[in-house]
Input
Amino acid sequence: MSEREVIYRHSGTVRITHWINALVLLVLLMSGLQIFNAHPALYLGSKSTFDDPILAMGAMQDGDNVKGVTSVFGHVFDTDGVLGAATDSEGNVDERGFPWSVTLPGHRDLSTGRRWHFFFAWLFLFNGLAYLIWSLGSGHLRHDLAPTGSDLKHIGASIREHARFKFPKGEEAKRYNVLQKLAYLIVALVLLPLMLLTGLAMSPGMDAAFPAVLDVLGGRQSARTIHFITASGIVIFVAIHLFMVLVSGLWNNIRSMITGRYVIEPAKEKP
Amino acid sequence: MSGERELDRRGFLTRGLAAASTVLLAGCDDLSEQPWVKRVLDSAETLTRVSQRALLSPTALAREYGEADLSKEFKANGSTDPDDAGYKAHAANGFVDWKLSVAGLVEQPIDLSLVELRAMPSRTQITRHDCVEGWSCIGKWKGVQLSALLDRARLKPNARYVVFYCADNVFETGDDKDKYYESIGLQDAYHPQTILAYEMNDQTLPVAHGAPLRLRVERQLGYKMAKYVMRVEAVDDLAKIGGGRGGFWEDLGYEWYAGI
Output
């Protein structure tokens, strides 16, 4: 097992649904921030308690100037120029949540943001269903993603290896390591379905059809808050995911997600 | 975007990402303007409407809350004081001479004063109002069921939509063509919670919330719930009304089916 070996790592279904999902999530995130900007505040419960949000972005008078601030549980942070508000070179104050450079469209336009968001939400659903049904039917979930007992026993070792940027080689590299398995499972089976559920729970139509969903989530404004927090969790996952792709063999990883082929480096030097 | 500065590596990366996202965004903004892209994106509305109609029984009620759940502050959005001479005159004397007209594709057009509307059977409901902007408020509404008015005027068989013409002009253009209007299908029109409310939180409906009458369509978003309703008209087609998309905000790009 000391020869450099090329294996077929990702099936066609995984590769196609992966890239569709990447594009769809990017559009959903950016159009979602556009929608958030229409009322950049979050609450808990059924209704909006306007004087007591758990998170709010906006402009605040600061002497002669106006600055952008973000309050979290009542603690106010100066986020001028990034969150809440920005002042351009001519002194015009733009009050909003997130900068327009990260929203879709790139200026205030709630109706178009909603059009993008809901169209891509349908793509997200179809793509996610295709992936989950295939994963169950083909055994991908059972064989490649479910952690084995031995995986879970060695989780500490895996964390230590990751912390030192040492990644499995040889036979070990042919499978996902335990941290990968857990991360992908949490994203595919918890975070992404939760996005869909909390998104639908904000729909007055769906609430009339399935009133129990809001009881579980704690009310419509809680659902909106969970939607935001879960989206943040996915952004953090993607950031870590991209970092790991970068440090664990950029081109090998990217090639394997495009062509399926992945190079396994030998575990030890040839004797 | 910013001035010329020495580029350190991190600055270069950030700028690179910013430039890439600007190109991507400009691309998406351009795309948003393309008629074919609009058509493709708009197709999701049909899918959403058909799916929700399939999941939602015509009589399924929106949740009704208790008195304890009422919002302390119910946000008044859109117009809060219509800039219309006729409306202001009616508001000044408590709408005593005002009448709601129910017309269009009906056998018997009717005009009803507030006294006559209040004499009809009423429905009271404490419901959650979800604004398209993302916030929610809970309010108590009392009014006459739209179905009762439509039955009284006897809807003609070719009627398919009910249109609500309002007194307010959101952008205060001064042009009557820009006045607020809304429309719903017959399924929502005959839904038990679809009422024309004349009371809010046990008080006469205030001007900020749409006096003398405000539509409630509880399974859709706030912009469907037209305030300052002056005239109700049954029609067979929305294409010839306003911008042809069935409502004030709809003509500006929002969905006619506002169930999400």
Q: What stands out?
A: Helices of chain B lie at 9-33, 35-55, 85-92, 114-119, 146-153, 186-189, 248-251. Residues 9-33 of chain B form the longest helix (25 residues). The beta strands of chain B are 99-104, 110-113, 123-130, 136-145, 161-166, 181-185, 195-200, 203-204, 214-216, 229-235.
